Amino acid sequence: MKKERNAILGVGLITVLLASCSQQPQSNLTVSGLDPQNFVADVKGKPTSLYTLKNSNGMEVCVTNFGGRIVSIMVPDKNDSLRDVVLGFDSIADYINKPSDFGAAIGRYANRINKGRIVIDGDSVQLPTNNFGHCLHGGPQGWQYQVYEGKQLNDTTLTMTMYSPDGDQNFPGAVTATVTYTLSGDNALDIKYDATTDKKTVINMTNHSYFNLSGNPSQPATDHILYINADNYTPVDSTYMTTGEIVTVKETPMDFTTPKAVGQDIDKFDFIQLKNGNGYDHNWVLNTQGDINQLAAKLTSPTSGISLEVYTNEPGIQVYSGNFLDGTLSGKKGIVYNQRASVCLETQHYPDSPNKPEWPSVILEPGQTYHSECIFKRPRCDPNSSARSRPASARDVPVASISVKTSVKSNNSHTRYFSDRTI
Questions:
Q1: Per-residue pLDDT of the chain (423 residues; tens, 9 = 90+)
Q2: Measured between alpha carbons, how far is residue 364 from residues 192, 277, 406, 409 in Å?
Q3: Are 18 and 10 in contact (CB under 8 A)?
Q4: How far is the C-alpha of 87 from the C-alpha of 393, rounded, in Å?
Q5: I need a labelling partner for 133 at 20 to 30 A (CA). Which of 61, 243, 260, 328 fits?
Q6: What are the φ and ψ backbone dihedral angles of 38, each rounded to 5 degrees?
Q7: Residues 291, 293, 294, 299: what is their CA dihedral angle, to the nearest 10 degrees?
Q8: How far apart are CA 149 and CA 209, in angstroms?
């Protein structure tokens, strides 16, 4: 009886301690509600962590070095209430056990390469195939599934470095790539990508955030209003591979030169491209011709008033409407991610550029430095403050919004970048 009483007392003490702990303020949680301890792990001998960037305005960005992923972005809505506008998971365990591209710094090569084959200086290279017979996002063990070396320089700056050996996923050349995240005082998240190689190779990096600007990813993002500054796009076949054509968007569901809801035409599968893509999963040929001062695209949530504006010096942008989300994944706070719960806007070189010499080059050679830059920004409240040279049809900017600018350069004057997905 004494042992039982002691056991009962012990259980009671544990219960009290747990209850006491549960009543303590959760000061260790991020503004977005993440527990940094859930991101402390060892993945293939490398440590992972959660890094938090904050500015004086209360904006917060959380990043993990597993895949260089943006886990959360807290921005103010039209009522100045903070909302998390990206999909993701609450722990490293979920990122490992539920494969996805959520928020990742994609490499070595983003988007699809036809049949996983490239030719460099006459030598044919066979890459791993992981998506309809093609190499997608660098293969099944692309950088989104590897651990970057993270270093937080201060409250607003973080670097992630990837040392990719020669032959990583069979890509030639030892590549050192660095991603630098900087959160500025004017609510801009500046993401810079830099890379070098010791052997001629191909490279294409991007951030693969899945945006739901309502802040409620339990609801589809098909009500979001989308504008794309593009008169042409690159069609795909039934395996999501570009055909090599460049085709006009005029009088097709691909025309977003006048803003419209993402879901307005998305199910018109009598249009073969929507059937092939299971919705939108295509590259648009931008009219901006590499001018980062021109608006490339804009996404707006009518419920939150938050907008995402995209500026880039890239020739293309991949729009992916979350077609492969199917309700089998539960993300942050246990929210189920159903089909089309998000929209990805991924600035890039056109898919399969290594095999289409008539398209802009993605080659990186020894002695050159690959450079890419992407800025997510909440502009000033003045509705014309970030308008730049965008067309009149895109001037209805909500009071609260996020801008995205992306630039990619190398010392051979070729711009480069990417897009696509696993789910």
A1: 433 334 333 433 333 333 333 333 445 999 999 999 999 999 999 999 999 999 988 889 999 999 999 999 998 889 999 999 999 999 999 999 999 999 999 999 989 999 999 999 999 999 999 999 999 999 999 999 999 999 999 999 999 999 999 999 999 999 999 999 999 888 778 888 899 999 999 998 888 999 999 999 999 999 999 999 999 999 999 999 999 999 999 999 999 999 999 999 999 999 999 999 999 999 999 998 988 888 888 999 999 998 888 888 888 899 999 999 999 999 999 999 999 999 998 888 899 999 999 998 999 999 999 887 877 777 544 333 333 333 333 334 332 334 444 444 443 333 322 233 334
A2: 17, 30, 19, 11
A3: no
A4: 29
A5: 328
A6: -75, -5
A7: 120
A8: 20
Q: What would the two tokens of residue 93 be?
A: 């365990």
- How many Cβ atoms are within 10 Å of 82's Cβ, its own excluded? 16
| Positive or negative: CA dihedral 344, 102, 316, 392 | positive
Bridge partners of 363? 202
Q: Are strands 60-64 and 50-54 parallel, antiparallel or unpaired?
A: antiparallel
CA 273/CA 265 separation, integer angstroms: 12
CA 398 to chain centre: 23
Residues 103 and 209 sit within 8 Å (Cβ to Cβ): yes
Catalytically active residues, by annotation: 208, 346
Q: How far apart are CA 321 and CA 189, in angstroms?
A: 23
